[in-house]
Amino acid sequence: MSDKVPNVVYKQEFFLPNYKDKTNQDKRNYYSSNKYDDYLKYVATGIKDLEKLDFVEYSNNSTKSSGIFNQNGLMSKEQIAEFRKNLRETKSVIWSGIISFEENFGKKWCGCYEQAYALVKSELPKYFKRAGLNPDNIEWFAGLHENTDNRHIHLLFFEKEPQRMKNKEKHFSRGYISNNAMDFLKANIELFATDFKAREKEIRLRLTKSVKERLNDVSGLKLKQMLLDLANQFSEQGHTFYDSANMQKLKPNIDNISNYIISHNVDISIYKNDFDDLVEEKQKLVDSYCRRNGMDKPQQNLSEKYTKDLYRRLGNLVIESAKNLKGQEIERLKLNAKYVVQKRMQKDKLWKGLEHCMYLNSKCEYEAIKCFQDYMRKLEEMRIKTLIDEGYLSSDFEM
C-alpha cells in the first residue's frame, strides 16, 4: 500500500425526481429503475461501461459480481423486486455512490462479500447521520464488484418518507451531502476494514473490565481509604458523573485513583500499555491517511483525546465504586452502633440480673443465719431445761 495513494476513494452523485432536460431525466430513469436495463440490474449482474456518465472508469475485463445486499444481507429476488418497485415510485432524491479501494488494500480487506457487507452495514448508518439523514428512513442496497484490479462497492439509497419541515410541510432532502461527511465515511471504512476499531474496543473493554474487578474487590487499605475520602467530598445534590459540574474539582483525585489501580496491578498495567500502543498506532495511521489524501492533520491530538475518553470511563467506575463503598461503610457503622447499643443493653440486663442474684443470695444467707440462730437458741433452751429437770439448776434460772 502506497503512502501517497488513498486506500479508500468515495464518489457520489444524486438525481432529483424530475428534470426538464432529457439527458438528466434519462439518468434519473436509469437509477430509479424506470428503464429495462437499470442500475440495479447492472449492479446485480455485472459491469457495463459507465464512462459515458463521467462517473468512474471501468476496464473491459470480464464482469463479476458478488450479488447485491442491504442491511439484512444478500437480497432475494422478491426483495429486489420490492426494492425496484419502491425506486420507481419514490419522489425522493436518489443517491448513487462507489466505494473504491487501492488494489492491494482492497484484495486484503474487502476481497469478499462478507467483508464488504460487514463494513457497509457498520459504517453506512453513521454516514447517513453525519449527512443529516435518518438511517431508519433510508432504503439502500450495495454490491461488491471484482471486475477490475481495484475492488469497489456500488451503493444506492433514497429516503422512504419526507421528513424535513419547510413552511409547515414535510419535504424530502434536496440531495446535497457535504464533503466532510464523505471524508469521514472514507476514513471510517479504512479503520473498520483494517479491524482497528475492533481491536480498540477489545483492549478498552479488557482494561475497564479489569479496573472494575479491582474496584469490586477493595482489599487494600490504601485504595479503600482513597475511595472513602473521595466519596466524602461528593456533593449531596446534583449529578456525580465524571464530566458533571460537581466533579470538576475532584477530577485530579479521581484520576489519581485510576492511576493507582493501573500502577499497582500487573495485568492492568499491561492492558494500559496495549492501549497506549494502540493510540500511537492510530496516530500514525491518521497521519498516513492525511498524507495520502492531501488533508491537514486533526488539530486535536489523538493521544489526548483517547486518554481523556479512557479516564472518563475509568473515572465513572471509580465514582460508582466510591459511592457503593461509602454506602457499605454507612451500613457497617449503623450495624456497629446497633451492636454497641445491644451490647450495652445486654450488659445492663446482666448487671441487673447479677444484682438480683446477689440480693437473693444475701437474703438467703440472712434467712439461713437467722434459722441457724433460732435452732441454736432452741437447743440451748432444751439443754437448760434438762439441767433444771435433773436438779443441776434451780427452776428460777433465767436464760
Keywords:
399 residues, BirA Bifunctional Protein, domain 2, alpha+beta, single chain
Summarize the helices and strands and which ones pair or pack.
Blueprint: E1 8-15, H1 22-31, H2 39-45, E2 65-70, E3 73-74, H3 77-89, E4 94-101, H4 103-109, H5 113-130, E5 138-145, E6 152-159, E7 164-166, E8 169-171, H6 179-193, H7 196-216, H8 221-231, H9 251-263, H10 266-293, H11 302-389
Antiparallel strand pairs: 1-4, 2-3, 2-5, 4-6, 5-6, 7-8
Helix pairs in contact: 5-6, 7-10, 7-11, 8-9, 8-11, 9-11, 10-11
Describe the fold and architecture.
This protein is α+β, with helices and mostly antiparallel strands and 399 residues long. The chain has 2 domains: 187 residues, 2-Layer Sandwich (BirA Bifunctional Protein, domain 2), CATH 3.30.930; 133 residues, no CATH class. The protein has 11 helices and 8 strands. The strands form 2 sheets. The chain has a 6-stranded antiparallel beta sheet, with helices on both faces. Strands 7-8 form a two-stranded antiparallel ribbon. A hairpin with a 2-residue loop joins β2 and β3. α7 packs antiparallel against α10.
